[in-house]
């Protein structure tokens, strides 16, 4: 375990009918019940890929952090592997929240959700629909799948769609999944082909063989029509949205609109690009400071 005076436990959380989420629980070194942040990664990401610095900072400031892998990813169960389902990922957040509410060491009135990149979709959805949250943090979020589609050149979008439809058709007949690479250099066929895609991959790959840079092609069909930005005005809790100044992956317009439309919305414009919020990035320390401050302020006056 890294980080002075912190404890990290490895646990399994029941999810769905018979699956389990693999999770880390970071605990601060202080007595009594503590506020808790439930955390997960973006598209194709696993908890070992860059989430520890955030969880460690939160824990060092008095917050427990429950960091989990979605079903089908990382050390969690679920078949096929590397399959993305928005419905299931939202269910996984709720499974982790339900588990956390049963724990005596956590203060259920001071419970937060945190998500980065694609998980920003889930965070906005949860802020609008999950009762009892003290706050929510969406970091460099994709909150409008249709707007994200407009970032993709037409020819590449058609090729990706063809792979996705072929994979979906194959699944009906029990064929093995078709996979696409997630991060690729510009000009190659993959989900993320921005100028900084390989920088992001270097920052988020755990480097221990626990992560593969691929996703089932059919997963892409679940993304484009999901638009939780429309629900931001219904957010029930304080919602911090961190928007990178030069984000080439997640369109910034919808994220800014979500921060504006949320009744208790807050905005931080981070320096640099989509991957500069992570360790090694241009604005990592500032993002940690802003997010920790948000948690501290809203744990003092929880929203019920």
UniProtKB/TrEMBL annotation:
Ranges that cross the membrane: none
Domain Serine aminopeptidase S33: 36-262
Presence of keyword Hydrolase: yes
The entry's keywords: Hydrolase
Pfam families given in the database record: Hydrolase_4
Gene Ontology MF annotations: hydrolase activity
InterPro entries given in the database record: AB_hydrolase_fold, FrsA_esterase, Hydrolase_4
Record-linked Gene3D superfamilies: alpha/beta hydrolase
Listed PANTHER family: DIENELACTONE HYDROLASE DOMAIN-CONTAINING PROTEIN-RELATED, POLYKETIDE TRANSFERASE AF380
Family: Belongs to the AB hydrolase superfamily.
Name of the molecule in the record: Alpha/beta hydrolase
